[in-house]
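Methods — Computational structure assignment.
A single polypeptide chain was analysed. Its primary sequence is given first, followed by the predicted tertiary structure written as structure tokens.
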Amino acid sequence: MALSREEILKYVNANQIITRNFEENCLEPASYDIRLGNEGITSSIKKKVNIEDLGYMAIEPGEFAVFMSLEFFEMPNDIVGNIGMKSKYARRGLILLVGLQIDPGFKGYLTLRMFNTSTQKIVISFREKIGMVQFIKLNVPAKKPYSGPYQEQLTIPPEDISHIIESEGMTMGNVIKSLQGLITSINDLKNSQENLRKDWERHETRMERHEKRLEWIFGIFGIILGVLTVIIAVFSII
């Protein structure tokens, strides 16, 4: 059964579930909103940055990112958490790649792995709500609560940093940027061709006008020449 807002608050007041950086205004009727913490790394930056100092984190199109949650979790043995993405970012193409569950007994900050599937850069501010967790009460407490390698996690796991730093070649974000640049170049070429066509049409129009003027001038000249010929012939007879 999912915990209500009031039940979550009871656990927090008992120093359980969320024990650091809890904010009551992040409580929803049956969930809690997770906020962006102070550590992050993306596949283009390739180094861990302090988001609190920077003020925000930008995820380029087609780019992977790893963040830490602002909240520190201490899950009781009878509570499991289901993690989801805030619809605000899901609608913009940001997807959550993290494991979708917080096991009973887990203690630590959450590692949030994300991917930007859109063609636009997504900027997230420090302490901004980016995800949500729904807490489910188990009918029977876990006899073997979580005790894996991420227990007491305080920072981005070294393997996540290594995977991003050791990645070679162009990121998907760079590929998308290159394709966008190519499309822009093609559009510029089309515009140049269109401008040349219009210039040529204007040139042809001017040439036609010149030809008509010349025809008119030659016509007048012909008439004048004819009149002069007649006049000369008359004077010759006289």
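Note: The CA atoms of residues 213 and 219 lie 10 Å apart.
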